[in-house]
Amino acid sequence: MKYKSQSVAYWYFAVALALFGLQLVFGLLSATKYLGPDPLLYILPFDVTKVIHTNLLIVWVLCGFMGATYWMVPDESRTELHSTKIAYIQLVLWVLMGVTAVIGYLFRWGTGNKLLEQPLPHKIVIVIVMLMFLYNIGMTIKKSGRLTTTEGVLLGGLGLAALLYLPALLHYENYTVSIYYRWWTIHLWVEGVWEMIQGGFLAYLLIRLSGADREVMEKWLYVIVGLVFIAGILGTAHHYYWVGVPAYWLPIGGIFSALEPLALVGMAMFAYSTIKRSGMSHPNKLALHWTVGSAVFTLFGAGLLGLAHTFPAVNKWTHGTLITAMHGHAAFYGAYAMIVLAMITYAAPSLTKRPEEGTAMGYWSFWLQLGGMFGMTLSFATAGIGQVYLERIMGLGFLDAQLKIQIHFVMLLVTGSLFAIGVALFVIDFFRFAPRFDMTYRAAGDQEDGLQLKPGT
User: Fold this and answer.
1) What are the sequence ranges of the domains in the chain?
2) Which sign does the torsion angle of CA 446, 452, 455, 457 carry?
């Protein structure tokens, strides 16, 4: 750790991992409800557990983004954070917002707008927190007078993410209008500006872990950002197929959604070509696993599986089924969960007393999570294919179809439990090492702008 203020990242990572664990609890609880009598039906019904599960995902990933940014920006700008006090106040507000929102969902206090269920007071707190965050990061960069392309892409993604949250503050009684504007936030986040955030972190990690040339990395970033803007914005149309908007959205959605995976292909090539040239000489190979794994699994989950059901002729059969869950789980995990875990794994030897080369528990966590998520994806896929055939072609009712595909939810619970064990190992591996906030430690083999740095420099 070169700068003392980077230590604030530890507390963001700690909160993010705690919320990640809680998200899995509600996810597994939601899955069990497909298997039979539900003893918690009148205490924690499915609609409540699912809302908590999906909203905790947003909260912990954003918390991880903020922590990773507070680690990366001082390192890139070569200066202390503008204000650690603002960072800690921001974290307290974020935790209070998240906890009270979850408690509110237990009592059905929410807007009912999927993934944006937060009540208006909570949304206002989110806006305040994001403004504090962007101010702190912006002033840090201004103070240093150094803005790298990697930082610029990351900051651009974070700033646009905050801007695109503003439509979520609006309320519409008409469902078609409401869902139309909802995708301005959700789609343009997860299939747009969040990919810029992922790209920024990915470039930073590859530069630091492989010693790759910064100029080459940043050229790749320009390609990725360009593809995100070309395809991602108009690709929003694939959410408009069946919500009551004019038919011209069908070809727009089909064409530009098909182009969206190009950015993900670029990201995977970006990671692969870097490691191929530089090898895996950095001692923190565990962080390299998470970094390259994020790029590759994003291509699989967001790219391949998204493309599989994005065309209108296919989507008319698959929308609203478990095929969407198949794509959503794999895409979100690969693109955003894994890149946050990569940043945590990279920073952990400096923030804690974890060995630089990682631990056996860390590697078990990586492979169990990867195997578990792949199994969950297959479970959702087989269940979704059965559901499409039974409901959309054979004409069975929803509950009758669910009874016939229950075996796939047994598979889902088994693979989900495997995934949960992997996450538990990651959380334990993070917290079992005491925090270390001294400024003298620097990871062996760390790279900066293609130059290898010695420990302690």
Assistant:
1) 1-147
2) negative
